[in-house]
Amino acid sequence: MEVQGPAPTDPRPARLRNEVLLVLGVSLGESAIYSALLLIEALTRPKPLSQQTTTLNPSATPGRPWLDLAFQLNHILVLVIPALLALYLLNGAGDAARQLGLDRRRPRFDLGTGIGLAAVIGIPGLGLYLGARQLNLNLTVEAADLTSVWWAAPVLILAAAANALLEEVVVVGYLVTRLGQLNWRPWGIVAASALLRGSYHLYQGFGGFVGNAIMGVVFALFFMKTRRVLPLVVAHTLLDVVAFVGYTLVHNHVSWL
Predict the structure, then answer these.
(1) Nearest-5° angle of CA 100, CA 101, CA 105?
(2) N or C: lower Cβ tally within 10 Å for the chain?
(3) Cα dist from 59 to 21, 63, 107, 249, whole Å
(4) What percentage of the chain carries pLDDT values higher than 90?
(5) By C-alpha distance, which of 199, 240, 231, 220 is closest to 27?
(6) Cα(21)–Cα(178) distance, rounded to whole angstroms?
(7) Would you say 244 and 162 are in contact if contact means Cβ atoms under 8 Å apart?
(8) 161 vs 143: CA distance, rounded Å
């Protein structure tokens, strides 16, 4: 009599879990761990958080603008690659851009909704940042340190778009899709996406974590309802352009920044 071995298990859930961990491990998951370490380092300094500064777009080689430009463009490329990797992995189930709503089927909806989301998130977000800094829960955030070069504005706009593409494709489009395929409950998917978004902003302090986690809840729910990530990319790009370029233009004239 032949003895039957155990029934083979479906490798797909395990493969998807490993894929998610690897994608996050080479992108924003690693950034979350690094940000947590930066916050611990800041908390163990003698200065309070509000008297410490973090710069989002620092100059890599001050005084050598052409080499600095090369460093900045390389950094932008590094930001985009994990988003392209996530899209490539999702392409196994078809057209990933169409699947995530990253196409041009609804341009008016994408642009109009993106602008609306930017306003809804950006204005309260600025208030939360200022409040957290007053309560000594946040570092002072310098959005850019590229004020003396002619290419500062276009590079900062490219950096804003690259950040938006990376975060919204990986943390919303890719992660929400994969966790849904792994049969996570909707609230768990939203929580995972929001907590990840907040975690890789911990380098800014507790206010950065809370503000971005709230943004993560809104963006994850929006994507689950509309299945379109492009409005989120538009909104995020606008938020970062205002922060990066606006800071560069006015920070020397507005003391509370």
Answers:
(1) 155
(2) N
(3) 32, 9, 35, 16
(4) 81
(5) 199
(6) 11
(7) no
(8) 15
Q: Is the pLDDT of residue 7 over 60?
A: no
The candidate with the shortest Cα–Cα distance to 161, out of 85, 230, 100, is 230
Task: Give the burial class of 8: count Cβ atoms within 10 A of its Cβ; 0-12 exposed, 13-18 middle, 19 or more buried.
Answer: exposed
227-233-239 Cα angle (round to 5):
135
Both tokens of 97, joined, read 């851009």
pLDDT at 1: 42
Q: Does the structure show a pLDDT above 50 at 3?
A: no
Conformation bin of residue 25: beta by default, left when phi > 0, alpha when psi is -120 to 50: alpha
Cβ-contact 169, 100 below 8 angstroms: yes
- Mean predicted lDDT score pLDDT of the chain: 91
Of 97, 88, 92, 79, nearest in space to 26 by CA:
79
Sign of the torsion angle spanned by Cα atoms 238, 239, 241, 245: positive
